[in-house]
Amino acid sequence: MVLSPNPAADQKAWWQSPSLVRGAAVVVPLVVCAVLATVRDLLPAASAVLVLVLCVVAVAATGDRPAGLVAALSSGAWFDFFLTEPYLHLAIDDGDDVQAAVLLVLIGVSVTELALWGRRQQEQASLRSGYLDGVLSAAATVAEADSGPDQVVAVVGAHIAEVLGADRCAYVVGPVHDPRVAVLDRDGVLTQHGQHRDVDRTGLPVDDYVALEVRRSGRVIGHFLVTASTRMARPSREQCRVAVLLADQVAPLIEG
Asked: Which structural domains are found in the chain, ordered by start?
């Protein structure tokens, strides 16, 4: 018998599959409505709507927008089919039931968007935490007495490449002499050929290098040369500023 090297990842795989999640978005409201239909004479429409909203929330929490929207529409359709007169038909005679069905779909769509917004905020917070960990790791490497300049440069370069989503990052002694090289400044602004470039929208150059200057006493003593040629990297302004902050970590240890 072969054991999985990461059982936790296998347990999560089912909800990370879009096809399974979207299938559940159709089936779960169907099952819930079929069960609620057995007690529909005792269950107010508002209570049924709340139960179905919980189903939409559960699906939307996976982070798949199409699945959340499908769950909202599926809930509205099966609510109509099982819980409104005439039963077992996609038709509604009562005006209050029409209103409940419409509200169910609208609430489901709204909840989906709110859940996705919450996941985006959580991901951004996680990224910020990762950036901070990178800066602290680089600072700790600089502070260690047994860490030589080469080791510090290697650690910082790896963090810079990771933060920017680039392929490689190498340190070069001295200022940037090639005018084709784009320069990333302390404000996270990329300048190429004398013009500012919106990397959040257009991405890092794939056919040219990007330089992060290392300064000491106002003088450029070297620069990190970043390569992003195999994939389109679109770092945010915040990521660019973190990368520059990381580059500053090596200045005290490098001979000018």
From this structure: 7-122 (no CATH), 146-253 (3.30.450.40)
Query: Residue written as tokens 């079929």?
Result: 34
| CA–CA dist 212, 169 (Å, integer) | 10
| pLDDT tens-digit map of 216-237 | 888 899 999 999 988 888 888 8
Distance of CA 192 to the CA centre of its chain: 28
Residue with tokens 């195999």: 230
End-to-end CA distance of the chain: 59
Residues 65-87 have pLDDT tens digits of 888 888 888 988 888 888 888 88
Would the pTM count as exceeding 0.90? no
> Among 73, 66, 78, 68, which residue's Cα sits nearest to residue 31?
78
- H-helix or E-strand spanning residue 118: helix 95-143
The C-alpha atoms of residue 27 and residue 46 are separated, in whole angstroms, by 21
Closest to 235 measured CA to CA, from 185, 179, 161: 161
